[in-house]
Amino acid sequence: FSSVANAGILSASRYPLAMSRDHVLPRFFSKLQSQGAPVYAIYTTVGLILVFVLLFDPSPIAKLAGAFQLMMFALSCLAVIVMRESRIESYDPRYRSPFYPWLHILGVLAPFWLIVQMGLLPSLFTGGLIIFGAMWYNYYARERVDREGAIFHVFERLGRQRDTGLDRELRQIMKEKGLRDADPFEEVVTRASIIDSPGGTGFRNIVSEASAHLAEACNLSAKELGDGFLEGTVVGMTPVSHGVALPHLRRPEIESAHLVLVRCPGGVEMGMDLAEGQHNQSEPVQAVFFLVSPLDNPGQHLRILAQIAGRVDKEDFMEAWLSAPNHQKLKEAILRDDRLLTLTLEAGTPSAILIGQSLKDILLPEGTLIALVRRGPDVVIPRGATELKRGDRLTIIGEPAGLDALGKRFKQQAQSPELH
User: Fold this and answer.
1) Could you read off the pLDDT of 99-111 as tens digits, one per residue?
2) What is the DSSP string of 4-19?
3) Domain region containing 214
């Protein structure tokens, strides 16, 4: 019984947190403290668990808790079936269970059979929960919920209604989960072209210039890319938040992801420059990130978008973005702090041993690489034959363990971006 109570204390707060985010419970349950813990949800669930443990007989409580968990397992299996059949591109699980759908159908049916075998009380409790949940949704949550769910995407495959709200929710989940180890986010950012757009430049002109940069790396014309970006913006497929716009495309002709970063210190009114008049976004943007990716890897495309969105949502991003004195600093404002290290080569310091060496001769920890070399006012694209010189500022990306080893090797010469 103690193990059941302990498991409940550890996991129970996730239910009111998720339900609050879906507007099924009051919003205060979704409030997080500075470290990301849902404090009100934790206080409420721990308090309820302690009351039940102290005031009631443990044996029936353990049965009811087991029945509740079995019901949740059944609903989880049902959710997997619905999500898979919906074919939503934003659905990007790290693991896909085998023997679909038979294993999942068994997972839906078997828990309810087990609940019946547990006796009358657990069966009545489960039925009561289902009835109470249906009534709560009908009388409280229905008017507060913005979307109906993944089942609409199943209906859409049959020619009926679909709902786009779940796509947005799944993208938010992807933002919280972050990138996978194989995602080339750092490489995409460090290879990105940068455009400093003067004040007064229209959004269409920015799209044209960015498309010209991307056309050099893709098997597509600048016009085709530009038309795709504009179409996505007009129909509302371009995320805009905190002064940042993220136009994006996926095309079968593209072999790898490419990015163009545009800084607009004066701000750009996107809606003012679209002749169609269908884009109502009035928020001026000071940063525009154009991303193109292969058509056959939607998950990676969305994870890169989510990573960028997560970075620009931070309070310190816009200040770092607008005040960046050069292109290297501009890219460092986007890169993940734990995947980035900078090193300035100076005489009389541990980094002096790198001066005069070619990059191909430098032994770096596995999973790390020198992505950018800042030399005076210029950014040097690093190649194997590139010879490092005194005063060079290196941007090194890679796995946290490798970067930590480099930091210890060069001690205080290696700095994380926030120290600059």
Assistant:
1) 988 999 999 999 9
2) HHHHHHHHTTHHHHHH
3) 185-330
